[in-house]
Amino acid sequence: MAGDEKAKAKGEQVKGKVKRAVGGALGNESLKAKGHAEESKGDMRAAKEKTKDAIKPK
User: Fold this and answer.
1) Measured on CA atoms in the order 4, 12, 17, 36, is the torsion positive or negative?
2) What is the DSSP secondary-structure string of the chain?
């Protein structure tokens, strides 16, 4: 399950970066903002997974 969440986080980060880049190139502030939000969501999901890995008993 953790692998799925990590992949989902990476996917959100990549989609967000693409949306931000396209929004910036087209001058579409709405698309740029949506991309930034999606990228942030992916960053938060990745941070959550890293935290879970760090506290997992070894």
Assistant:
1) negative
2) -HHHHHHHHHHHHHHHHHHHHHHHHHT-HHHHHHHHHHHHHHHHHHHHHHHHHHHS--
Q: Which of 15, 13, 17, 21 is nearest to 42 (CA)?
A: 13
Within 8 A by CB and 6+ apart from 43, the residues are 9, 13
Tokens coding 6: 């990590």
Give tens-digit pLDDT for 27-43. Answer: 999 999 999 999 999 99
Instruction: Confirm whether pTM is higher than 0.70.
Output: yes
